[in-house]
Write a structure and sequence with these properties.
By secondary structure, the protein is mostly beta strands. The chain is built from no helices and 38 strands. The chain is globular and about 60 Å long.
């Protein structure tokens, strides 16, 4: 129902809601909310905009090309910093749809990556003008910048960064070589050259995802795919960072060359969905899906997208397991020309899906909790996916964790909570149960916190 009014270049799934916060190019009323609690959906304007805050206007509050993540707070505030501002930071309140300004960063953070850490704080990394990392603590502000070694200076535009099960960080691209490092000792970073080299000649092209971490060993396997250099356009590769000597290895090629931006999106059944990244066509061409548990099958072609989705597009997993796609092209004003959104419904929408009838809203590390479900004996897996925060071809918050089912009773299962914060950094997740055919339920919101 209605039209987007602004470009879906940036998108964030708002915790404890069926709503998506999104925004795009420079304008005073830059942000919108899409409410998908009804089948038609509704577009809403927030109660205020960053430009409405004291001392700011549409240019000094411009969060186009910013970075963002969801904080570990009871409300699930969204932290947004950098972009064309370039050092300002804001929080968005999902409960009241209001913007608030917080402290500035020291460095200019254009095209940086922001993600949650294992201690509940948030790191913002690199960017086009800054070769440091800054850490944010809600209520306390930004700490002094952390200097990074010159050998990592090639990382700049939205580096594809993940928290690993041992607490270290891993930058998987888009530029080569990739690096694993301890934030406390960045000078000791390890370097891992890729098979196909850079995924981008500038900016950031292609995409990346870390497969769902699964017990008992929770091996962190990261995939990169696509990009604009010739060797990257149709290729994909993975690295298993649990190996004694991790190395990148080629996996099955994509069916289609994807030289532009697209977003690799984790589905609750563990598959990786990609769509877009193809230019010069009247539509977006076919999407593709890769199953990490059946890598020999390669990439399965899916339906053709109605519209091109490349630079300034965004793909975001919704609570029901569908994928929202929006943005590009065109990306110019006036609002009437903005491309309508579309939505992908994976194959499990054709199946009878299991249900979560009740689950706790908050869980802690190391304990057990109960999920109520009508057919507990039919369930095979329980999975948590972190609420997404997407822009420029990368979901900065995306990660998944399979939980151990420790008991089954009439109408319920008992599940072991996340073992530690390295596996599931504090914050907001969608909880899914999956049956023996790997068909997932709709997600239930759950906050993981110490």
């Amino acid at each position: 129902m209605g039209t987007p009014e602004v470009l879906l270049m940036h998108s964030v799934l708002l915790p404890n809601t069926d709503r998506v916060l999104f925004w795009g190019r420079t304008r005073a009323d830059q942000t919108r909310v899409w409410d998908y609690s009804t089948a038609a959906g509704t577009y809403l304007a927030p109660a205020n905009q960053p430009a409405d805050l004291p001392g700011l206007d549409e240019f000094s509050s411009n969060i186009w090309s910013a970075e963002h993540t969801i904080l570990d707070t009871a409300e699930g505030h969204v932290l947004v910093n950098g972009g064309f501002t370039p050092n300002k930071a804001f929080t968005f309140h999902p409960a009241t749809l209001t913007w608030e300004r917080v402290g500035d960063t020291v460095g200019n953070r254009f095209y940086s990556t922001t993600l949650g850490l294992n201690d509940g704080k948030v790191a913002t990394l690199y960017g086009s003008a800054t070769k440091t990392i800054e850490v944010y603590e809600h209520g306390a502000g930004w700490a002094a910048p952390i200097a990074m070694p010159a050998s990592m200076n090639h990382h700049e535009y939205y580096p594809w960064t993940y928290v690993l099960p041992d607490g270290r960080l891993f930058i998987a691209g888009p530029h080569d070589p990739t690096h694993r490092f301890d934030l406390a000792v960045p000078a000791a970073a390890e370097s891992f050259p890729t098979v196909f080299g850079n995924r981008s000649t500038g900016g950031e092209k292609g995409s990346s995802a870390m497969f769902i971490l699964r017990p008992p060993d929770y091996r962190p396997v990261v995939m990169v795919m696509g990009g604009n250099p010739a060797p990257a356009r149709k290729t994909a590769e993975t690295i298993d960072l649990a190996d004694p000597v991790p190395t990148w290895s080629a996996v099955a090629d994509l069916n289609l060359e994807r030289p532009q931006q697209f977003t690799a999106t984790l589905l609750p059944d563990g598959r990786v969905f990609v769509g877009g990244g193809i230019i010069g066509l009247p539509d977006g061409d076919a999407c593709e899906i890769f199953d990490p548990r059946n890598p020999g099958a390669g990439w399965a072609l899916g339906p053709v997208m109605q519209r091109p989705r490349s630079y300034h597009s965004s793909f975001l997993l919704l609570r029901d397991g569908s994928v929202l796609a929006g943005g590009a092209p065109p990306d110019a004003d006036p609002p009437a020309v903005y491309t309508l959104h579309e939505r992908y419904f994976p194959s499990y929408f054709d199946a009878v899906r299991p249900q979560i009838t009740a689950a706790p809203g908050v869980v802690n590390y190391g304990g057990n909790f109960v999920i109520n479900t009508p057919n507990p004996g039919s369930l095979l897996e329980v999975v948590m996916l972190r609420a997404g925060s997407v822009t420029h071809g990368f979901n900065m918050s995306q990660r998944g964790l399979e939980l151990v089912i420790s008991g089954t009773a009439a109408g319920s299962i008992t599940v072991e909570g996340p073992p530690n914060a390295n596996l599931a950094p504090p914050g907001w997740y969608l909880l899914f149960v999956l049956d023996t055919d790997r068909v997932p339920s709709e997600g239930a919101w759950i906050r993981v916190t110490p």
